[in-house]
Amino acid sequence: MRKLEILPFYPPRARWYGRWRQIGDGFRRVSQMDWICLPENISLWQFLAALLIPGLAFWLRRQRRIGQAIMAAWALLLAVFILWLGYTVANFAFSLMLSLHATSILFLISPWLRGARLFFRLLAGVATLFLLGALLYVPLRNQLQNRWLLPMRVQGQVVVVQTFSLPSVRRGDWVAYRIDEDSIPGLRLPDSLGLRPVIGLPGDRIRFTPTACVVNGFALPRQPRMPDSGELIVEENHWFIWPELAIIQRGAIADSAIDAVFLRTSNVEQSQYVGKPLRRWFWRKQHLP
What we know:
Blueprint: H1 18-30, H2 44-52, H3 56-60, H4 64-83, H5 88-108, H6 110-113, H7 118-147, E1 149-154, E2 157-162, E3 174-178, E4 187-188, E5 193-197, E6 205-208, E7 212-215, E8 218-221, E9 231-233, E10 238-240, E11 248-249, H8 255-265, E12 267-269, E13 273-277, E14 280-281, E15 284-285
Antiparallel strand pairs: 1-2, 2-13, 3-5, 3-13, 4-11, 6-7, 6-9, 7-8, 10-12, 14-15
Helix pairs in contact: 2-5, 4-5, 5-7
């Protein structure tokens, strides 16, 4: 007769998140929110991934064709947003990307909304769109424009500007820069950014004549509202960039005061630098005005 062998039993070790899970379960019971739990057959990490990846919720919940279609559509819209950056079609693609992502999240949390009133479901949809846009999409778009690429509309066309660190700038290079607000009463500059060529570098001597702008002895075409006479030396860490401003007047303002605004705005600090326009944006050659 064989003897029964008693094997030692080792209970499974507690996970690192076990204590936090107990606290969460206790909070749900006390607050009468027991209905909040992970959807069936979805782990915590899958749930978090489905919040970030559009269409993954449908894939995890056995709606794989719909999930694949949403993922493909979202990727296509992302390509449209990047290729036509700055155009109306890009803004439309951005809105559709946000809508598809919100639809995926609402499908993910649909078990929580089961049995809820129509008003509460509509409120959940609006809140999802708002939070997703405010916390994820708009900050990512702003980071893209501040650190990488900035679309600027100049004379009816879009120019994509590369907003990397300050490169070496030579005379004739086009740069995008911030325009400081002017404090003359009754005068406002609606454009906060300018895109113009650099005429003078630090130390250059600029001389104005009735027919030309002379830079270190080389005559350049005279720009509108340039002075008829006088000269200046470009300061250190500055550029001489003659602006193209759309000025809004409130009341009668003398032309001499407006000319003074142009002259002051032409003295651009290098700290106002935003970026340089790309020669090409994919297949499109960027034409500068």
